[in-house]
Amino acid sequence: MDSTEFRKRGMEMVEYICNYLETLNERRVTPSVEPGYLRHLLPPEAPQEPEDWDQIMRDVEDKIMPGVTHWQHPRFHAYFPAGNSFPSILGDMLGDGIGCIGFSWAASPACTELETIVLDWLGKAIGLPDHFLALKEGSTGGGVIQTSASECVLVTMLAARAQALKRLKAQHPFVEEGHLLSKLMAYCSKEAHSCVEKAAMICFVKLRILEPDDDASLRGQTIYEAMEEDELQGLVPFFVSTTLGTTGSCAFDNLPEIGKQLQRFPGVWLHVDAAYAGNSFICPELKPLLKGIEYADSFNTNPNKWLLTNFDCSTLWVRDRIRLTSALVVDPLYLKHGYSDAAIDYRHWGVPLSRRFRSLKLWFVLRSYGISGLQHYIRHHIKLAKRFEELVLKDKRFEICNQVKLGLVCFRLKGSDKLNEKLLSIINESGKLHMVPASVGDRYIIRFCAVAQNATAEDIDYAWDIIVDFANELLEKEQHDELSEIMNRKKQDTLAQKRSFFVRMVSDPKIYNPAINKAGTPKLSMELPSPVVSRGSAPIIRTQSSVDHNSWISWPLAFLFNSNNEEKGSNVSLRFRHLDTNVRPSSSRRNSGAGSSPSPENELDYVNVQQQQMEQRSPRRSPMAVRKASSTRDNLN
Amino acid sequence: MSHIPISNTIPTKQTDGNGKANISPDKLDPKVSIDMEAPEFKDFAKTMVDFIAEYLENIRERRVLPEVKPGYLKPLIPDAAPEKPEKWQDVMQDIERVIMPGVTHWHSPKFHAYFPTANSYPAIVADMLSGAIACIGFTWIASPACTELEVVMMDWLGKMLELPAEFLACSGGKGGGVIQGTASESTLVALLGAKAKKLKEVKELHPEWDEHTILGKLVGYCSDQAHSSVERAGLLGGVKLRSVQSENHRMRGAALEKAIEQDVAEGLIPFYAVVTLGTTNSCAFDYLDECGPVGNKHNLWIHVDAAYAGSAFICPEYRHLMKGIESADSFNFNPHKWMLVNFDCSAMWLKDPSWVVNAFNVDPLYLKHDMQGSAPDYRHWQIPLGRRFRALKLWFVLRLYGVENLQAHIRRHCNFAKQFGDLCVADSRFELAAEINMGLVCFRLKGSNERNEALLKRINGRGHIHLVPAKIKDVYFLRMAICSRFTQSEDMEYSWKEVSAAADEMEQEQ
């Protein structure tokens, strides 16, 4: 493909993109394909000879699009928004065209410097304290773009781990590092994103998952009590991850309380994960939700969620960039350059060494919309969520399960978890709407998120109409099945007990050390299993770990050591279900039913007759289609 | 017997009918569009397409290395985001005024630093489509095409390299491939999988040892020539990593085994070894056919890092360098370096992904059976949760070039390296510091390291070509990497003239 053809095909792709986004509402939100669908549509090997571009574009429509879940669809209400906008697409296109890799300043100065400046722009707009901004006088902080929030949490936990180990080694110079590592404890709420747990597993440290309050908010007193208890047991608190805007219910941990309590535990790194909600703080009326940020050591938010910026664009700010980079620095000669001391080299700020020119799209978006345009966009989504909340509240059969502060509404039918799971399943299977569940306060709830960039009030009303239609049919059926109801209640009790047991499990320090005895005093032990003799150093408080193959020795790799205990495995899976989707292809359901491994999912069978009914329904015209028809009629005049 | 469909006219107890929406749309503010409308996008896009085409078409004419100093950009743009939207024309104008002065032009034929970072029109256009679809493929259902195209593309790619069937999803076994962002991430993921596997093994043998005791004993290995990301993976993974001394820049099986046996004698637990095919310093190749069997013998996880050179294995004449690949547990190379696929696209295959899935994921497998590979949840195979639709650009590139043209691209670069090497050897002032492999020439002036440092500084200072140095066993040399897809034979002559002219200048100053 030469540049002449690129100009032609590039514009054809632009046309395709415009057409795709303009007619998106005419597609099913979710595809009706089954796993493995694509394998049979594509040849098993790459073509030896070049293929024609037009054939490739036909394949995009015929083979790729049937398998696309349309995240930009006005009826997509799952997860959180996946940012997408024309300026962002073009910024990424320019980044591709320039094609530099910005691991050091010299590798492409504009790549590094635009990132530094744009992160300061965004930090100011959000209202971060000056010490997080790189170019403020006297600041030791700064911002960086990561691939995702998972990496923001991971790199800050790695930095905190490095810092804590360094401090412990200074205090206990003869103790082996593995043993020091076993003392470290991180903390987060039960509502925190699963990436915190994943980061703890990668860092190979213990994570204590704490119970939030009735509003799903982690409180300062809870943190304090947990840390004090752990310190008494000889453990070393080193990291706390708090969430502003949890995935399950968009709840807010109480950052002012937590920050104050952490003043009693110097050396603990406080991270704030505001992946979705952080974007909204560009609106003055929402800045109170950021209260307490001055206590934080790091903060992350994802413009690729709610700021019309395409994935990948997750922004992280730290108070002290040296503490971050010193944990990650590996510095070979071929990456050094003449200005190494004067410039920020972003390869030291993340897991990958190489990095794309991502700041271009953020720069394009911030300029093309302006802060006021982005504020308007966020406020619009919040209004839509409030509108949906009002619709739910008006229907006495439903209830709201979260405080609707931003764009997420958690709701459910009053009644059993099974009833709500059925409702969500039949809605999603219809392909008219796409939502996902979450577990909040031990109840199965349905998450409805205002997602689409150009969503309208009519879209919200239409979504509610769909939900009500399906609920009406489901409730009608349920009224005729009292026996099923009795069985549902029994299953619900079983599931509730399992869930409750698991929640207690993960918050109970006995998981980490079954020998913990709250009533007793900590035992002092002069003996260490390490061959290094600690003669002359202060004794380390260490409790004996009982050898019990049924107990969890530590959080990292716990599943490996308990892989034979399927009941626990099943319980564990419930904990993280909120990240999964409820859409089950038909063959998967049948295969799952025949699966050899028991799981709670198999107990919750799906009713095939409902699916048959759904297939008979004619697709309902969306308001946008009506408007398009009107527009066509107007054009005829 | 089918259930009678419910009718909307059936009355319910609800006072507001069937509960449908009855809030007036007027309650919301009138819809104000803040979006760039499609016609404006088309104009902006056309200008951008033209800009990119002209930029790449005329890239020779730009100075490859910028003349700016740190901090150049700050005075050129405001220190805060604009409150009001700006015109796209203003953003477009700032590309030349603000961005281009600070761009190091990686795709200039005069850029010879690092290794290639691929760039091609099909990949650029595919990334545009990926950006428009804008799905996040962390589970199969989150966008089935995203996952499934990746499965098939990894099989296509694996077959192009003739990887053993155990690595391919289509074999129906455990194995399969995944696109990571970078080789650094592939190396770390492999290390974490290896760690999980070894911990479980040791735990079964020594139930009385706690996992942190075991962790303290784990040790991994790599050549002293391995990429810095390998050392970093050890740092991040919290394990010791031993550097094994290479012989002619290549790690031999005997040296690896000696290191392993020494560590075992000291009570340590070897668990992981990285074999590099195509080192960054000199594009040297570890003896995989020796190191692999040694690793298997001692039950280590063998990870093969072929980040740059892996692309060359689509050419049969270079596959002998992969000999021993069947002994590996994981393999990685970067199509975004040399296969005309834009960054980020790092291909990784695993013989048994379950160790990676179990190593650091919090959502364990529901069923204990071998994964069929049709619909993996790729979020378990990587560090981030979210992922872009990267398979599209691989698909576009492989189809629009076809394997034969990609092979031709590889061969052309290898010939250019040989051409430059011949020019060096013909000049008695210069010597080769290492064997010429693939598209990399390692050369230096005969004499001291200081002379060569001065030479490099002078070459780069002229701004006409861009090289970086490397050092092996205290010998400093210059690396000439063939990077750009626009490079012609005349460009190699030009680059040689630049090197020679800089050397001439130095001689005249003495």
Automatic annotation (TrEMBL), chain A:
EC number(s) on file: 4.1.1.-, 4.1.1.25
Q: Which Pfam families does its entry note?
A: Pyridoxal_deC
Q: Where is the composition biased (Low complexity)?
A: 584-600
Give the UniProt keywords, A-Z.
Answer: Decarboxylase, Lyase, Pyridoxal phosphate
> What SUPFAM superfamilies does the annotation carry?
PLP-dependent transferases (SSF53383)
One cellular component GO annotation, for this chain's record?
cytoplasm
Q: Does the keyword Cytoplasm apply?
A: no
List the GO biological process terms: amino acid metabolic process; behavioral response to cocaine; carboxylic acid metabolic process; egg-laying behavior; locomotor rhythm; locomotory behavior
Q: Which cofactor does it need?
A: pyridoxal 5'-phosphate
- How would you classify this enzyme at the top EC level? lyase
What segment(s) does the record annotate as region Disordered?
583-637
List every position bearing N6-(pyridoxal phosphate)lysine: K305
* UniProt family annotation: Belongs to the group II decarboxylase family.
- For this protein, what is any one GO molecular function term? tyrosine decarboxylase activity
- Please verify whether the record's keywords include Lyase: yes
Identify this protein by name: MIP05841p
Q: Which InterPro entries match?
A: Aromatic_deC, PyrdxlP-dep_de-COase, PyrdxlP-dep_Trfase, PyrdxlP-dep_Trfase_major, PyrdxlP-dep_Trfase_small, Pyridoxal-P_BS
Q: What is the lineage of its organism?
A: Eukaryota, Metazoa, Ecdysozoa, Arthropoda, Hexapoda
